[in-house]
Amino acid sequence: MRRYGKHTDEDDIRSRPNRKGNRPRTHIRPKHEDAADGMVLTVDRGRLTCLVEDRIVMAMKARELGRKAAVVGDRVALVGDLSGAKDTLARIVRIAERTSVLRRTADDDDPYERVVVANADQLAIVTALADPEPRPRLIDRCLVAAFDGGLSPLLVMTKSDLASPDKLLELYGHLDIPYVVTNREQLASGDAAELVREQLAGRVTAFVGHSGVGKTTLVNALVPEERRRVTGHVNAVTGRGRHTTTSALALPLNGTDDWVIDTPGIRSFGLAHIDPSRVILAFPDLVPGTEGCPRACSHDEPDCALDAWVAEGHADQARLYSLRRLLSTRERTEGD
């Protein structure tokens, strides 16, 4: 094999022509001004199911987006075959700026932040009152993620025929969180879906909860036909039906512009990405009291100005306790 030294004669080096032509590459990307607007409904192994007008369209991310990923709820621009016909594929060329994000990490030591849902207005935290037992620390973590991501929380309590909701309502009453209480008879009759539907008007609502609390059953009662429509189209392409358990899925409420997003059952909700300074924004009655806090105050230390603010009667002591309980949830395990 011939080797070249440090000072080679350029005329002696064989050059290979560019098989694709000698036109130089450009960094200028097309503007795709004719791209159609759509919404990501679900993501499955690199294929994104989108709603474009009234059609379900399969798409993939365009190369020019780089490592930027689209998630359920994203508003996107698409080009290519938008007919929605079988075996067609469009391209997502733009992702609109997000108004909110629901994010989590695998655990509190995991630096990798995952965006679960984009552009949701509300986070419905579904918990059973018994069978399985409520997990207040997990609820706390979901609340922190909602406050940090710009979502309004909604507490949905199921199986009230097995246990009273009073204990949970007492724990979260000072947070002024709207709530719905349902039982299994109401779920079977459809009354539970109607009670929850009243809280969804005019909003995009993401549903979270751990396995066994009745989250997906409730979503199915809200939008039975839409789930079959979307998953049926996806299954025809992928040959699998994974979306009720492993992938987030956005579904429109019948006859309205409101949306529900069913997310996979969660075992843990890591908060390594959370900025504590954003959580307090969910407590507007306490925000003015932080003006006297030392720099980078954790709001749970001796020099915190919130103690004096509350002592002077500007806010309820229970509200300060609730804030500190939520801020400290990163330091506790979800089963505590």
Walk me through what this model shows.
The protein is an alpha/beta fold. It is 23% helix and 22% strand. The protein is built from nine helices and 13 strands. It has helices at residues 136-149, 166-172, 184-189, 191-197, 215-222, 224-238, 276-279, 306-311, 317-327; strands at 36-44, 47-52, 55-61, 75-80, 90-95, 101-104, 114-118, 122-128, 152-158, 179-181, 204-208, 249-252, 259-262. β2 (47-52) and β3 (55-61) form a beta hairpin. α4 (191-197) crosses α5 (215-222). The longest helix has 15 residues, at 224-238.
Alpha-carbon distance between the termini? Answer: 67 Å
Count every beta strand, where a strand is a DSSP E run of 2 or more residues: 13
How many helix segments?
9
Strand content: 15-25%
- Determine Rg (CA atoms, Å): 25 Å
Mean pLDDT: 84
What best-fitting shape do the alpha-carbon axes yield?
A: globular
In the predicted model, the low-confidence regions spanning at least 5 consecutive residues are: 238-245
- Succession of helices and strands: EEEEEEEEHEHEHHEHHEEHHH
- Computed structural class: alpha/beta
Helix content: 10-25%
Largest sheet: 6 strands, mixed
Strand arrangement in the largest pleated sheet: 10-9-8-11-13-12
